[in-house]
Amino acid sequence: MFFGADPVAQETEHATKYEDIVAVTRAAEELGFAAVWTPERHFQQVGQVFPNPALLSAALAMVTERIALRGGSVVLPLHHPLRVVEDWSVVDNLSHGRAGFSVATGWHSADFVLAPDHYDDRRERALRDIPLLRRLWSGESGEFADGTGRMVAVRPQPVPVQAELPLWLSASGSLATWETAGRLRTGVLGATVGQNRPDLVERIARYRAAYRTAESPPAVGPHGDHGTVTLMAHTYVGTDDAEARHTAEAPLKAYLSSHMRQMQSNRDEGAPTPLDERQVDQLTDFAFHRYLSWGSLIGSADTCAARLSELRDLGCDEVACFVDFGLGQDRVLAGLHRLAALRKDLA
């Protein structure tokens, strides 16, 4: 999973970042990983190269053959559902049926300069439009207002390769979102960050229960009758624990610091109180050491194997390994090779 890119990258380095993404994705495919996730992020220092996951996935489709190409996440209230289906249908055709994405409701006020009237009711819009996405993907037409204000029936093109759209719903700590994903029979894309073990167990259990008892759509397609829990985790598998922690510490702290500043720039009423530099440093240090003890795949192969086994036992189906928090390409690739060997051992 790509999620942040280098928080200190200069604009002149963006072309190199795309080259890194291509190189890492090709390596992930060769090593047998199941999917690559690319996010949607706007106007911030973190995530500068990720304004459109469909566009980037289309490029990755042309240099890969097997690996699934997933948007993690598509901020649905920023876009017309017809355009989302059209864009991802192109990806599905270019990749011969490897497209899928997770729906996010959006959170940062600055993102919504793209759709300012959709901010206050962004959650309701996203959840309302998920069934519509599925209908449009399956070939049904929808009625929408045209340039004259009249309602017209339109059907998006091109026709996708996959009959059913692989969908996830992005969830943070809200139990209601996990249950909603179950009722909608989507997968759920969450993160180990900000959740302890008991909370995660409860959320997964409530998701499974809602998924099993949902009346529609039928429990078929990419998530079967069980659903899919995908958890994002910061990842670097080192030669040993000490090397992994030493290698990850500075770039991860820099990423966390930049991410906190992004959160503080949000003008929503629920945004955190601004912190001074000393407080940011204290919080990033605390977060880093917490990641080392729970929720990350930062450590030796043995340490990461134990954490993967634990996540599996807690009910996780997939781990989306967040690799681009400031490590160079060589280290990311070396860590992926060690992780691939570990994955084979666990299987």
Automatic annotation (TrEMBL):
Residues 11-317 form the Luciferase-like domain. Pfam families: Bac_luciferase. It comes from the Bacteria. Signal peptide: none annotated. This is LLM class flavin-dependent oxidoreductase. It comes from Streptomyces lannensis.
